[in-house]
Structure formats: structure tokens, C-alpha cells
Amino acid sequence: MPDLEGFNSAPPAELRPLLTACLAVPRWVDALLAGRPYADVDELLAASDRHAELTDDEVRAAIAGHPRIGERAAGSGVSAKWSADEQSGVDTSLADRLHAANAAYEDRFGHIYLVCATGMSGERVLADVTSRMANPPDVELRVVNRELAGIAALRLRKVLA
């Protein structure tokens, strides 16, 4: 994976799959590529955050490739590995409760529950999903948008590591 200098100079075709693994929104990927070169990682992360204000359709499309909390990502690519790492703190002994919480959330909102799970315990995830069930659907999509932006920032750091 490239460092910042490599990121700034790599051909777009080389970076596109890595950026898509960070956030599967073509407009966001294109904006980050077009903004190169970045002076430092903070400038790249600020650009990521600026362009991560997603439409509702972009949010729904972006979460489509994410696994449910407590489940393994499909495939063996970089996105699946990152997802497994991000969920590593979620205790699998809570699988039944997580499955029930995921199902209730999906019934309510029509899409999977998504949270930036890095560093979160299973109990914390359960508390979060429970509290978010009270959100109106339009508010919840904005919450998911913020979670996607957080995941994108974490993954961008991994791209540059």
C-alpha cells in the first residue's frame, strides 16, 4: 500500500479499488483522486470528510457491501479483511443478541445497521443499536452517513500505512 507520496503519484486506476474499499461511493473516490496532491494526511482526511456528505441513495449503496455487525464480510479482499479487523472487539458470544438487534433494525429502517465498530465491545454495539432504534428514518440515514465517514477515515489511514 502506498505512503502519502505514493498515494499522490499513483495512477488513478491503481488507487480506485483501494478508495472504493474505504467508501464505495464513486463521487467520493473521484473527488479524492482529483484533489491530489495532498500536503499531508490531515489534508487528505479533511478532503475525505468534506466529500463524505452523501445523498440518501449514496448511503444506501455504500452500506450494501458492509457485513452485519457480528457477521463476517463476504469475500477475501481488502475490504473484507478491514471489516473483520474493525469488528474484532465485538464479542461473538453475543451472536444471538446481535442477530436479533440486526433483524429489528433492518425491519425498522430497511437497511443494515452500520457503526464504526473499531474499539467497540459487543455490549457497546448493542447499546448503540438500541438507542438508534428511536431515530426517525431520515435522521438515521444521516447517522449512518457519519459512521461511513468515520470508517472511510480509518480505512484511508490503513491505505497509507
From TrEMBL:
GO biological process: purine nucleobase metabolic process; urate catabolic process
Cleavable signal peptide: none
The Oxo-4-hydroxy-4-carboxy-5-ureidoimidazoline decarboxylase domain, residue ranges: 8-157
Organism superkingdom: Bacteria
Annotated EC: 4.1.1.97
A GO MF term: 2-oxo-4-hydroxy-4-carboxy-5-ureidoimidazoline decarboxylase activity
Broad EC category: lyase
Keyword Lyase included in the entry's annotation: yes
InterPro entries the record matches: OHCU_decarboxylase, OHCU_decarboxylase-2, OHCU_decarboxylase_sf
Pfam families: OHCU_decarbox (PF09349)
Pathway assignment: Purine metabolism; urate degradation; (S)-allantoin from urate: step 3/3
Reactions listed under catalytic activity: 5-hydroxy-2-oxo-4-ureido-2,5-dihydro-1H-imidazole-5-carboxylate + H(+) = (S)-allantoin + CO2
Keyword terms: Decarboxylase, Lyase, Purine metabolism
NCBIfam families noted in UniProt: PRK13798.1 (NF010372), UraD_2 (TIGR03180)
Record's protein name: 2-oxo-4-hydroxy-4-carboxy-5-ureidoimidazoline decarboxylase
Species lineage: Bacteria, Bacillati, Actinomycetota, Actinomycetes, Pseudonocardiales
